[in-house]
Amino acid sequence: MPGPAPQELFGLLHCDGAAVIESVNATLASWLDYPPAELVGQPFDTILERGGRLFFHSQLIPNLELNHHVEELYLNFRTRDGVTLPVLINACRRQKENRVGLEFAVVRMHRRARLEEELLQAKKLAQQANTAKGRFLGMISHELRTPLQSICMFVDLLLEGAVGPLTPTQKKLLVSSQQAGGNLAGLIEDILEFVRMESGKTRVDIQEVSVREVLDQSEALFGVRMQEAEIEFLSEPVSENARVQGDPKRIQQILLNLLTNALKFTPAGGRICTRLVTDGNYACFEVEDTGSGIVADDLARIFDAFVQTGSGSDMAKGIGLGLTISRDLAHAMQGTLTVRSTWGVGSTFSLTLPRVPETANAPAARFEDSDLH
Amino acid sequence: MGGDPLTRNGVRFSGTGNQPMLFGHGFGCDQSMWRFVAPAFEDRFRVVCFDYVGCGSSDFSQYDPARYSRLEGYAQDIVEIARAADLRDIVFVGHSVSSIIGYIAAREAPELFSHLILVVPSASYMNEPPDYEGGFEREDLLNLLDLMEKNDLGWAGFLAPLVMQNPDRPELTAELQESFCSADPQIARRFAEVTFLSDHRHDLSRFDPPPLIIQCRNDDIAPAPAVELVRQRLENSVVHCLPVSGHCPHMSHPEETIAAINSYLDREALPRSA
Predict the structure, then answer these.
(1) What is the three-class DSSP state of A275?
(2) How far is B268 from chain A (nearest CA, A)?
(3) Sequence-distant (≥ 6) Cβ neighbours of residue A37 within 8 angstroms
(4) Which residues of B touch A43 (CB under 8 A)?
(5) A116-120 own/partner pairs: CB under 8 Å, 24+ apart
(6) β-pairing verdict for A282-289 and A243-246
(7) For A33-71, what is each residue's pLDDT tens digit?
(8) ipTM, 2 decimals?
(9) In 3D, which of A292, A294, A286, A291 has the Cα closest to residue A234?
């Protein structure tokens, strides 16, 4: 290897404003297999692969000119013999009087680069697998939906007496079939929604939304079911002017999911409460229950797809997509969905959305029953 | 294509003149790359800068892979910006790939354009032996995409968008500092492919009045044979060779670039900067 033994632990290189090398330390020169003097006066491109030159001139130079420094940049150098040398660089642009200089600190990263490569490949494979999974789920759900619609339609017809009167036992069996069909249709819709979200095809229509109307709607939908389940349902009063930024249908969808979950996991005699908490520029819908709660270990993963805490085997409790969809919808509206819970005491889910200042008197979006499903 | 082109492309206006001077940025950056040059023309022109979709302050959600799979899609954006802002007699200044995008726009809607200024243009970046030396092989482009991907993997947030998605802490987005040359990494990679794989050598032909080509003495991205081909195809074009190295003279040598544009404006009897 020509030149003196490396002195510094890192490579150092200075260029003028036109990226012509002015100096290079012994360490970097030895890595590149050049005598230092031979590099002086050469364009920076000399030590770059051609693809790296495209990157250097189209990305790095404009960045340095405008932002004046770049950190932790991955680049491939080329040694005198044409061998690729993966490096990590920090670079800055300095102006002294009328002179511009570019300064590069360089570290080698052979092993890191290999790991990086493997990581990228693994990421690509995982993405491909995930896309394939999404396609499969979407396809199978569509295939299931059509015959299911026929089954449900025929059950409805039978229940309406279209083919003659029913005995009480026949009616009971058909009502059970109708409910099971409804559950199954709900699951299929969840899967299709999940696939749409994963492929980035879900759109939200952001507007000003009246909090009061959202909560009133939820109460109207859930009041009777809560009574039937012997659960106390409280909706704490909110100001008529309270408004958030979001998609009214999606907010309602999230709240329905949260209330349905609360209903599932709260035993008779329990209590479910909705309220609005405001905090600066944000407003937070809370759904609090006195249900079974979630053990601490599960808290971090209940928003992951296909995760169902507890027994998880009860089909009526879903397949663990509702919260994933709700969280992703919240994100799509620039909001968040979080939970706090104590095992055996209950859970509180919080949907936080950007708040509209209450002085604004603009008309908020209204809900129609047809929007809900 | 929905949406207002002026919002979609983050269009910004400045200057006191009537005639519009429209600046198109090159691949790898955003409209901020014109900040050392564009202000010099604000006293005589209505200066208009914009970002291609996926760059800078454009609306990233408007990115349509099919539309932007060809430079013609980007050119359509320019035509739509010009129509939306009612720009006429445009002096278009394009850097690198933008010079070709601007040429395509001017050919599609000649009634909107007055003059073209092409900064370091290349109609095709790929070598085609034995007759054409674009400077690069397909493998070089793959290397570029690889480097972009690795840097996107998290080394530096090198091209991190201006407003990062921070779903768990939405309050942070407003506090992020402005950084220049931002872009959506995935869109940037697709833009790189479209830029470096497109071949517009046979689309170029005479344009009147004569366009100005600004060339740098040592430019690896747009090497002399590539610039020469653009000159030949445009027949009547005027070449101004700057005695500087690199591919971004408007950033590394703004004064020389402004002077080159001014001498062209003089020749064409257009308003020049003070």
Answers:
(1) strand
(2) 30
(3) none
(4) 218, 220, 245
(5) A116/A74, A116/B150, A116/B153, A119/B153, A120/B149, A120/B150, A120/B153
(6) unpaired
(7) 999 999 999 999 999 998 899 999 988 898 888 888 888
(8) 0.84
(9) A286
